[in-house]
Amino acid sequence: MIKFLSSIGAIVRLTLVAVGLSWKLLVRLIKLFRPTMRRFSLVSEQMHFLGNYSLAIISVSGLFVGFVLGLQGYYTLQKYGSESALGLLVALSLVRELGPVVCALLFAGRAGTSLTAEIGLMRAGEQLSAMEMMGVDPIARILAPRFWAGVFTMPILAAVFSAMGIVGGWVVGVVMIGIDSGSFWGQMQGGVDFFKDVLNGVLKSFIFGITVTFVALYQGYEAQPTPEGVSRSTTSTVVVASLFVLGLDFVLTALMFSL
């Protein structure tokens, strides 16, 4: 019994320590916003690395999600004689939910793991310690540009995902099935509200960008300086970031559409 209680206490202690260190690091990264923007070339370089290399999987995934939404939406709306509302269904599904959420999950798997592996290898190779010895702050020089690059990149990728999904829904609904193109776009234009739907989706993607990027950087920064430690942290990035995204999506949806 004593061993069991001591193990529970150790887990709780380690969890509290991790929470404290993570919040301390997050506050530090937020405070470094203005100094980081003064060296925007570092941020733009990381935006190219995170965004451009993730664009292919984001675009293709959005297109196929739009295909599926078009087919499933048509079969559902056909039962009620509302096929003309297919464009509205596809747009609202993507802009409100699937665009930010699925894009964040893909971003965690593609960009998040690369960030964790990169920072973890720097930790294992003692590059971060060498920077500290030379008087260079690794958080300001390495982590902050990557953090803000991920925050800025995520809403752009979510917009691309949603746009490609709408194109996919149009291809299935109008080109393949034969729904009137004017009805498809007209219903979408009349039913999608910019403030309640589009801006809420942008806000979600912004918060998801903060979450996924920070989890990736924290896992890499606190990784054990061994190959096994870096591998474990890279796996944890996908798991932890995905759980945070899904949990935050529920909370944000409840808050946004209950006001």
Walkthrough of the structure:
This protein is mostly helical. It has one domain (32-256). The chain contains ten helices and no strands. The chain has helices at residues 2-31, 33-38, 40-52, 55-78, 86-124, 127-133, 138-177, 181-191, 194-221, 227-256. The radius of gyration is 21 Å and the shape is elongated. The N and C termini lie far apart (48 Å). The model has no long low-confidence stretch (mean pLDDT 87).
State the order of secondary-structure elements, H for helix, E for strand.
Answer: HHHHHHHHHH
Alpha-carbon distance between the two ends? 48 Å
Sheet having the most strands: none
Shape: elongated
Number of domains: 1
Radius of gyration, Cα only, in angstroms? 21 Å
Helix content range:
over 70%
Portion in beta strands: under 5%
Low-confidence stretches: none
Structural class from helices and strands? Answer: mainly alpha
Q: Return the average pLDDT rounded to an integer.
A: 87
Topology:
Blueprint: H1 2-31, H2 33-38, H3 40-52, H4 55-78, H5 86-124, H6 127-133, H7 138-177, H8 181-191, H9 194-221, H10 227-256
Helix pairs in contact: 3-7, 4-5, 4-7, 5-7, 5-8, 5-9, 5-10, 7-9, 9-10
Jot down its keywords.
0% strand, 259 residues, mainly alpha, 10 helices
Summarize the structure.
The chain has one domain (32-256). It has ten helices and no strands. It has helices at residues 2-31, 33-38, 40-52, 55-78, 86-124, 127-133, 138-177, 181-191, 194-221, 227-256.
